[in-house]
Amino acid sequence: MRGTLLTLTGAAAFCFVAQANAAVIFEDNFDSYATIGDISPTWSATTTASIVTDDNGGNAILMDGSAPNGANNTAIHAITELKPTATESIKLTGRIYDDGAGNKRSAIGFRNGATPLFEMGRYNGLLDTSYAARAVNFPGANPSWVQLSTEGATEGWHLLEAIFTLDNVNVTIDLGSDGTIDGTLDIALDETLWAASPGFVEVRMGGPSGLSSAGGGLAYDNIKLETIAVPEPASLALLGLGSLAFMRRRK
After folding, report:
1. Where is the Ice-binding protein C-terminal domain (predicted)?
2. Closest CA to 218 of 122, 151, 94
């Protein structure tokens, strides 16, 4: 019993060290806004947004997508230029409410103009009822709108997550926000080119490239941008040894 306790303690200590340098850059649950006008200047002013109720009795922002092409269909939050490093990854999460209707173009993502840009959500140019993601003008990768889940559009609150490292972006979707990953996508990046590539300067929600969404938009909630520490190789090896010791102890 004592040996097992020590092993678990060591593993827990590793987890603490690996996350010690995590930092939240921006987070918004929209509950502090009494009217849609209150979102400015945190988010750019938009004529197609409204406050709705989320599944916990708080607020969410509905980007209805009815505007023609242009900035009024996209809410933008400016950030200091940001890109992954050898020691820190970038993590973007957000929840969307989808009524399951077709013909939608609405997403959450990053931009620095058009170079680079990243979006995840609904895009009717790929499949009318598909969840998808795209990474364009990134170092070493230019996939445009790749299907994220084999599931069609589903009514309910869904959790989207993207984690950027120097050589990869991993995108996941949790339909129903129940803790089960229902779709995942990995996009390889060229880490040697990041130094010369601009970082992200905007977090966005709404119409990709300001496009309208004839089938209605999505509601957005709990948008969070953070950096997370990249575990050092020595720490990973330590965790592996701890796990092996724990397995041996159980035997």
Report:
1. 229-251
2. 122
pLDDT in tens, 173-212: 999 999 999 999 998 888 887 777 788 999 999 987 766 7
DSSP for the chain, written as a single string: -HHHHHHHHHHHHHHHHHHTT-EEEEEE-STT-SSGGGGTTTS---SSEEEEE-TTSSEEEEE---S-SSGGGEEEEEEEEE---SSEEEEEEEEEEE---SS-EEEEEEESTTSSEEEEEEETTT-TTEEEEEEESBTTB----EEEEEEE--SEEEEEEEEE-SSEEEEEEEGGGSS---EEEEEE--GGGGGGS--EEEEEEESGGG---TT--EEEEEEEEEEEEPPPHHHHHHHHHHHHHHHHHH-
Q: What is the domain range of residue 185?
A: 22-231
Other CB atoms within a 10 A radius of the CB of residue 162 amount to 23
| Domain containing residue 63: CATH number | 2.60.120.200
pLDDT by residue (tens digit) across 1-35?
A: 333 333 333 443 434 444 446 799 999 999 999 99
pTM tops 0.70, yes or no: yes
